[in-house]
């Protein structure tokens, strides 16, 4: 897992050369935490959103999760620029 994260952070650092490595690492941590929460199947989403989202509909969650986490990583980079 650590090797994969390092490769991913290296690629992000190349794509965003002015970004602070610590910010990118935090962004990856937040992204992983969101993915684990969203796709754990623990039924937590149903309890929190009272039926407005279906934690079984994983396909429907991919695009919003990707959009949200991409915007978050970019905002960390822009905050330093």
From TrEMBL:
* Segments crossing the lipid bilayer: none
Q: Name the domain of life.
A: Bacteria
- One Pfam family, short name please? TetR_C_30
Ranges for domain PsrA tetracyclin repressor-like C-terminal come to 2-72
Q: What is this protein called?
A: PsrA tetracyclin repressor-like C-terminal domain-containing protein
């Amino acid at each position: 897992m650590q090797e994969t994260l390092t490769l991913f952070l290296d690629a992000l650092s190349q794509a965003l050369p002015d970004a602070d490595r610590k910010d990118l690492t935090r962004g990856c941590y937040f992204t992983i935490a969101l993915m684990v929460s969203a796709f754990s199947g623990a039924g937590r989403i149903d309890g929190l959103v009272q039926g407005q989202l279906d934690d079984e509909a994983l396909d429907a969650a991919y695009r919003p999760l990707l959009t949200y986490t991409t915007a978050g990583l970019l905002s960390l980079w822009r905050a330093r620029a």
